[in-house]
Sequence to fold (329 residues):
Amino acid sequence: MEIRGINYDTGQALDDYHSRPAFDDDDVRRDMAAIAGDLHATAVRITGDDPDRILAAGRHATAAGLDVWFSPFPYDLGAEELLDHLSRAADRAEELRRAATTEVVLVLGGELTLFAKGFVAGQGLAGRAATMSDPRTWASGAATAGFDRARAVQRETVTAARRAFQGRLTYAAGAWEQVEWDQFDIVSVNAYRDQGNAARYAADLRAYHRFGRPVVVTEFGCCTYRGAADRGGLGWTIVGEDRTIPPEYARSEPEQVRYLHELDAVFDAERIAGAFWFTFAGFALPHRPEDPAHDLDTVSYGVVAVRPDGGWEPKLAFHALAALRQPAR
Fold:
């Protein structure tokens, strides 16, 4: 693969949860050095709902020699708010691109039908996810109508972004979304394999080549417990309302390693141009090995385990990813 990447979170508010309340410049610099030097990544997809944080992290990433996929990911905005937010992000991305010696790609949002409001009925992420998983949504045509609204808004955001940003443009699509890829330079999809799509996973990826553009997987990964691979992108949903891990879910770092190796082989076979593991760290999911019920790293997709003091330790997936990304001698 040409692009050997990993996702990096700068913080996102989701209802009553924030994925990274604290954002320290020195910590980010250290993380980018590890991503470039230890993980042998060529690119980092920097996500979050604050374009200024993404810009700050992007400066450290480009200084470390990494390509940056500048990825604003706002939550629960309506169409007008979304256009304003993504336009502001495009300005920041262009600022970074002009100063960088590496490539900066602008990822113009992601999974809008779930994370933005006004396209699919439902309150918040949980409500919209429930709507999308209801067969009646598809049978009634409500899903198609939502996709039509999303595409109309997306055309506006692309037009605005192109005025500000002079680099390559893409969008991190959900596998269920219908995107007009002719307006983008790269086809990108968040492609989690799970028990439900495992049989068709490779074929679904292969189908994206029909758009005649490079195909990149902007997210793939699994959590850190036995059986997490079968849950894919919904692995985190096992955590209880009291923020505890049910006792039937046993922590397992090898689970992530198996998933990584299996999907990496699929990406090579299907000529995928690049892939970004999700994610470097679950910054708000501390590892408490002495207390399994409160060891929230169990539901983290990170390749490092974040300690309660804010430091981190590499997991088995960190070393496995580094070995796969090691450049040929």
